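subagent[fold] <- orchestrator: predict structure for attached chain, return tokens only, no commentary.
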Amino acid sequence: MRYILVPVGSTGDVHPFLGIGRELRTRGHDVTLAAGEPFRAPAQRAGLDFLPTWTEEAFELLAQDPGLWHPKRGLQVVLGAVSNMLSTTYAALHEAYRPGETTLVGHTLALPVRLLEEKYGAPAATIHLAPGTIRSTHLAPALPPVRDISGAPGWFKRALFWAIDRWYIDPYVAGPLNALRSDLGLPPVSRVFESWIHSPNATIGLFPEWFGPPQPDWPKSMRLTAFPLYDDDDGAPDPELDGFLAAGDPPIVFTPGSANRQAPAFFEAALDATTVLGRRALFLTRYPEQLPVDLPDTVRHVPWVPLARLLPDCAAIVHHGGIGTCAQGLAAGIPQLTMPMGFDQPDNSLRLQRLGVGAYLEPHRFKGKLLASAVSRLLNGRTVAAACVKYSDETRSEDGVGLTCDALERL
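subagent[fold] -> orchestrator:
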């Protein structure tokens, strides 16, 4: 069988598809990763064929948009970019699709995969990396910055989802989507995120039931596997980092997300907090221009390192709440403090808190002293330590990539 995997997003969105693709290739399948040009090299390292869907310029334009990390505007920025690339991505996938030989596997936002599934009856699956992308009038996903509406009446949640679709989502995606659907001879759709984004054949959640319990009104095609825990690790040693880790107490890791270029305030607060705590720290970012000048010897900047390799030697991680980072923190068994901004981050953050392994600070409260106090409570909490051990064992006992590939092969 030939699989075409279609992630949408940054490193945390692409890595799970790389892990799935590598496993499918090991099982004897031909696998193509259809993604943005920046992910050509990681795809090749994983032994996958590569089909560019976003140019380097389009990816950079999105990454540099100052609204990308805004709690209310971020999703609209992404939806606008996805809509702009809709026709060209569909054309690329259509050309690569071979009827009777191809299975399509799409990220939540890989709308062209759903179009090919509808148009040609192609075997396809929708991959949701986090439970926050799946609506429910029972245990509802948290809304930005971190608003838990699960206790609200069902009618309120239904009305709120309708309003989000009507005023916040469809204006950015329904027009371009329906224009392409018309060209393909397909009827128009509305409320795209209500149900259309879920494949009726197979919708797979890459998270375990204890993190995102299935709800009665989730799609009938939904099944859960587990966290994929894939890192693009070339195995290259970093003697300077290894020396820093060995030279003192386990540090606290601070990372605002692999694609975040608007994080100077995050790192300023991080430096203030480590000073208050008297702790060593690692600042992870590929964009050093947003770091404070003259970092002390107790703080080390690292452009990038696989979290699976790093976190077991660290005391805690402070991050944006992306699902990939959450999963690696759970596997490492360390406390997590998040500053959720948008997308799935608020919901992931709330779920970490419910598990007892983490806490969160909304962006306007992410300041040195408050951050130091919150991290201190996590590091010194006995129940936190016990919960971290429990869910580390749970996470590491599950083969998310293998279970997902089993489900895809059944298509």
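orchestrator: received. Logging for downstream: The mean pLDDT is 95. The longest helix spans residues 154-183.
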